[in-house]
């Protein structure tokens, strides 16, 4: 586990510090989108109904997990601030409390999803075979929720200690295991879409076990208690409240997009599953820079280094826009070759290629947004992010409803849908986070 270090000055040393955190974080961050892409590729060859059902189910599952991303964010910010202030024992104690909170929330959510899967799928507008496939996937993957949330909390602890390499190793091993289990269970054992859900659940639980052991060892080495401290758990829950609201606004926008895709038709919904998976993969790649910003900003504010925090902000933004431009070009250029990997349906292939091209054009703006989001999270500015998130959702709803009313099923409908989500919604986030970062109210120093 990494030790606290002083934030370097601007220039090449700062670039090295950012990349030393961001590059390993990239591998860990893309684990979840890779899981979804593997699921999409494996399940997509079972049929269009199975792929459409996976689209609904995976978005529900990612929404549940996404609403709990505060488990990673709050532990990263808290641990980084405390280590910046030289309080490593308190930092690890905060991390242990975060892991316990993850276990409790995960158990409750897993039970709720098992019971509510049919109602959830119906509420999203699905019926028939598509709904049946979605329910199957949700019920087989639900037991893995505890593992998913523990992975978030434990990863947050390690990021706060500036150790992004360990989550990378665990995530890489998990991605390989998930691929093998999906192929074996779906086709070898013949479980169909249920095998895909089960394989992902097993992988997540094993990843949680490995990361949990590493965090426990670090806590013992620093004299932190392994027992749950209710004051610390409640403090983490309170700190995470605004981030839940912020994440709820993001997931509400994503679910609204899924509902519109479902309403437009099976071709649009199936294509949306692949495009959203590739967008998620790209977004998590850009979020690697946001993770570096979180750790560096939290550590800098804890140590009172305001000037270096500003340097981190400027440099990470430059990296974010540049990385978004590169990723955008790659996506736009490869869409036609990627589409056949996911489906044999020619209409869905065209829809995927067109949707990916739209995402590619808008990716540099996404890089700007994700970095600013990470900076403000690292600073503990959750209350502002909650209000800003709701404002951006309000701005997006009319665009999504317009697509639902006027766009057709197929490639053009999917293009308009992604112009609304990746364009209107992301632009609203860029304005709200950019305005906040220009001031200094978010730069609160100390542990």
Describe the structure.
Helix 13 packs parallel to helix 15 (411-438) and helix 14 (382-406) packs antiparallel against helix 15 (411-438). This protein has one domain (12-438). It is built from 15 helices and no strands. It starts with 11 loop residues before the first helix and ends in a 9-residue tail after the last helix. It is mainly α. Residues 1-11 have low confidence and may be disordered.
Strand elements, count: 0
Query: What level of helicity do the residues show?
Result: over 70%
Structural class: mainly alpha
How many H/I helices? 15
Give a brief description.
By secondary structure, the chain is an all-alpha fold.
Record the SSE blueprint.
Elements: H1 12-29, H2 31-44, H3 48-67, H4 70-84, H5 88-123, H6 128-141, H7 145-160, H8 165-188, H9 193-221, H10 230-264, H11 266-303, H12 306-338, H13 346-378, H14 382-406, H15 411-438
Helix pairs in contact: 1-8, 1-11, 2-3, 2-8, 2-9, 2-11, 3-6, 3-10, 3-11, 4-5, 4-7, 4-10, 4-11, 5-6, 5-7, 5-9, 5-10, 6-9, 7-9, 8-9, 10-11, 10-14, 10-15, 11-12, 11-13, 12-13, 13-15, 14-15
Pfam family, one: MatE
Transmembrane segments: 18-38, 58-79, 99-120, 140-161, 168-189, 201-219, 252-272, 278-298, 319-338, 350-372, 384-407, 413-431
Organism: Promicromonospora citrea
């Amino acid at each position: 586990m990494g030790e606290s270090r002083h934030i370097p000055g601007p220039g090449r040393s700062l670039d090295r510090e950012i990349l030393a955190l961001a590059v390993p974080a990239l591998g860990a961050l893309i684990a979840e989108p890779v899981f979804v892409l593997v699921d999409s590729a494996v399940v997509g060859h079972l049929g269009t109904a199975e792929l459409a059902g996976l689209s609904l189910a995976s978005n529900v599952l990612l929404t549940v997990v996404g609403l709990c991303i505060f488990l990673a964010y709050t532990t990263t910010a808290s641990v980084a601030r405390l280590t910046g202030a030289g309080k490593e024992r308190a930092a690890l104690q905060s991390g242990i409390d975060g892991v316990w909170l993850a276990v409790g929330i995960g158990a409750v959510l897993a039970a709720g999803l098992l019971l509510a899967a049919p109602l959830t799928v119906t509420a999203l507008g699905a019926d028939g075979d598509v709904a049946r496939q979605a329910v199957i996937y949700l019920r087989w993957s639900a037991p893995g929720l505890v593992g998913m949330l523990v992975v978030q909390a434990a990863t947050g602890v390690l990021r706060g200690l500036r150790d992004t390499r360990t989550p990378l190793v665990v995530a890489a091993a998990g991605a390989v295991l998930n691929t093998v289990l999906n192929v074996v269970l779906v086709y070898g054992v013949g479980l169909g879409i249920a095998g895909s859900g089960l394989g992902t659940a097993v992988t997540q639980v094993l990843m949680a076990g490995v990361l949990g052991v590493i965090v426990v060892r670090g806590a013992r080495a620093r004299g932190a208690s392994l027992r749950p401290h209710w004051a610390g758990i409640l403090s983490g829950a309170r700190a995470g409240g605004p981030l839940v609201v912020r994440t709820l606004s993001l997931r509400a926008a994503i679910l609204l997009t899924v509902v519109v895709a479902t309403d437009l038709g099976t071709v649009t919904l199936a294509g949306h599953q692949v495009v959203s998976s590739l967008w998620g993969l790209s977004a998590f790649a850009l979020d690697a820079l946001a993770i570096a910003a979180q750790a560096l900003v939290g550590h800098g504010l804890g140590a009172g280094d305001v000037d270096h925090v500003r340097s981190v902000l400027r440099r990470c933004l430059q990296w974010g826009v540049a990385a978004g431009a590169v990723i955008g070009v790659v996506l736009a250029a490869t869409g036609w070759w990627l589409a056949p990997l996911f489906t044999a349906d020619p209409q869905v292939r065209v829809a995927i290629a067109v949707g990916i091209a739209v995402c590619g054009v808008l990716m540099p703006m996404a890089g700007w947004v994700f970095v600013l989001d990470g900076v403000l999270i690292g600073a503990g500015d959750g209350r502002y992010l909650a209000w800003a998130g709701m404002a951006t959702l309000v701005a997006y709803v009319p665009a999504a409803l317009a697509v639902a009313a006027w766009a057709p099923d197929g490639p053009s409908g999917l293009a308009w849908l992604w112009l609304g989500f990746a364009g209107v919604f992301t632009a609203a986030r860029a304005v709200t986070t950019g305005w906040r970062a220009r001031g200094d109210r978010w730069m609160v120093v100390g542990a």
